Each structure stands twice: as structure tokens, then as C-alpha cells.
UniProtKB/TrEMBL annotation:
Coiled coil: none annotated. One of its GO terms (biological process) is transmembrane transport. The chain crosses the membrane at residues 20-39, 69-96, 108-125, 131-152, 192-215, 227-248. It is found in: Cell membrane. Belongs to the binding-protein-dependent transport system permease family. InterPro entries: MetI-like (IPR000515), MetI-like_sf (IPR035906). This is ABC transmembrane type-1 domain-containing protein.
Length: 258
């Protein structure tokens, strides 16, 4: 492998070269972590502290809290997907389009404001956690789905009409069925935002548990080893969800151009 190639834009490299580059970056990050954890005043906790944090978390029921977070996330996602898909598909009707665009603009609302108004309506804290995530995800998901619909080529609609499809059949064949692979990809991308915000939302109700409770509790006692360990767990679970959704999309839509 010529060194010049790996620093050249749009250069195609082999699989072995790609693995070597990834390994080099992993080693570089490991060295940086080791150096940053040395001395009296260090940026990161040592690998030993992180390992001890993993053991403590596991003994305190880490898997139960992971399950609680996943269940909360799943409920919010299913509701948000149902709302966003319904609004997006109906946005092809002129009278509904302003509503869809208005919901899309709500993504600029701060999380604190959403929590304040939901607290007035909803008394149950666990239910409020779900709906905070639902509102948060629905705005971003609707925005992405509206962009997906607007990017459909006019030729596809014309082709459906040439097959004597009525307006509702065009909606079903071109937008709903024809873009199902894009929908899964949009959900996969927006799910990362929700998973990132999960810890913040879970701090609303500490008694319900979850990864947010563990991080808040660890931060309270300044246990940096546990905090880094939890960050690694959150990252690993998030990447696992991302991998599963990407695998399912490729498995069910083998001829997708995404």
C-alpha cells in the first residue's frame, strides 16, 4: 500500500488497507487514552477504573437498566413512527400539508419546554418520558420523511398513472410501498437522535431506572470510571440497534439503491 493513496481524496483502497487504517486509528485512540489517564490531574479515568466501573455496574443490575431503557425507547419509537408516517402520507393531501410542515418546524423547540407543557397534561412520570421522546422524535422523523416524499421523481408518479392507477393507488404504490426501504433508513438515522436524548429524558424520573439513572447517580458521586463505562455501554447498544436495522433493510430490500 502506497502511503500517498490513503491521503488522496476519492482513492479506492483494498480491504486489507482499510483494516490496517482502522487498526491504526484504534491503536492511536488507545495510546491517547493511556496518556490522558496518567498523572495526578488526568483527562480520562484509567482503563483499570473503567474496568472496575463495569464490574460494579454489572453487580448492580446493569442489564435490568439496559432493558428498561430499551423498552422505553421501543414504546416511544413505535408511537412516533405511527404518528410521523400517518402525517407524512396524508401530507400529499393539500389540506394536511400545512399541518405536516408545522410539525416539522417544532423540532426547534427545546426539550425543557416540551417537558414543561407535558407535565401539565400528564401526571404519570413514566408516561411523560415516553411522550417527551415521542414529540422529540416525531418532529425530526416527519422532517426527514417529508424530504423523502419530495425527492420522489415525477416520472414515477407519471408511470403509475400510465398504468391506470387512481390517486390513492399512486400513493400506495409509489410513496408507501415504493419507499419502504427509505423509511427504514430514515428511522435508523433518527433513532440515533432519540437514543442520544434517552439519558436526559430518563433523568426526569429517577425511580424508573434506566441508563439515565445510572449516569446521574455516577455523576453525583463523581465516579468517572463508571461514567465512561456507561458511555461505552450506551454506544455499544446504540451501534447494535443501528446494525440490526441496517441488516434488516438490506435483507428485505436487496435491490435498494440506498
Amino acid at each position: 500500500m502506497k502511503m500517498k493513496k490513503i491521503f488522496t481524496p476519492f482513492e479506492n483502497i483494498g480491504k486489507n488497507s482499510r483494516l490496517l487504517i482502522i487498526l491504526s486509528w484504534v491503536i492511536l485512540v488507545a495510546v491517547f487514552w493511556f496518556v490522558s489517564s496518567m498523572g495526578e490531574r488526568h483527562l480520562f479515568p484509567s482503563p483499570e477504573q473503567v474496568g472496575r466501573g463495569f464490574r460494579e455496574l454489572y453487580n448492580e443490575g446493569l442489564m435490568v437498566h439496559v432493558g428498561s431503557s430499551l423498552w422505553l425507547c421501543l414504546k416511544a419509537i413505535l408511537i412516533a413512527i405511527t404518528i410521523s408516517l400517518t402525517i407524512t402520507y396524508l401530507s400529499t393531501i393539500p389540506v394536511v400539508m400545512p399541518v405536516a410542515r408545522a410539525i416539522s418546524k417544532l423540532r426547534y423547540l427545546p426539550l425543557t419546554g416540551i417537558t414543561f407543557y407535558l407535565a401539565i397534561i400528564i401526571s404519570n412520570a413514566r408516561t411523560m418520558q415516553v411522550w417527551v421522546l415521542v414529540v422529540f422524535m416525531s418532529t425530526y422523523l416527519t422532517t426527514s420523511l417529508l424530504s423523502m416524499v419530495s425527492s420522489i421523481e415525477q416520472e414515477e408518479f407519471d408511470h403509475a398513472r400510465s398504468l391506470q392507477c387512481n390517486r390513492w393507488e399512486v400513493l400506495w404504490e409509489v410513496v408507501i410501498k415504493g419507499r419502504m426501504d427509505h423509511v427504514i433508513e430514515v428511522i435508523r438515522q433518527n433513532l440515533a437522535i432519540v437514543w442520544m436524548m434517552l439519558v436526559t429524558v430518563e433523568s426526569i424520573l429517577v425511580a424508573a431506572g434506566g441508563l439515565g439513572f445510572l449516569i446521574k447517580n455516577s455523576d453525583k458521586f463523581m465516579n468517572h470510571g463508571r461514567i465512561i463505562a456507561l458511555q461505552i455501554v450506551i454506544l455499544f447498544v446504540g451501534l447494535s440497534i443501528d446494525f440490526i436495522l441496517d441488516y434488516l433493510r438490506k435483507a428485505f430490500f436487496r435491490y435498494s439503491k440506498i
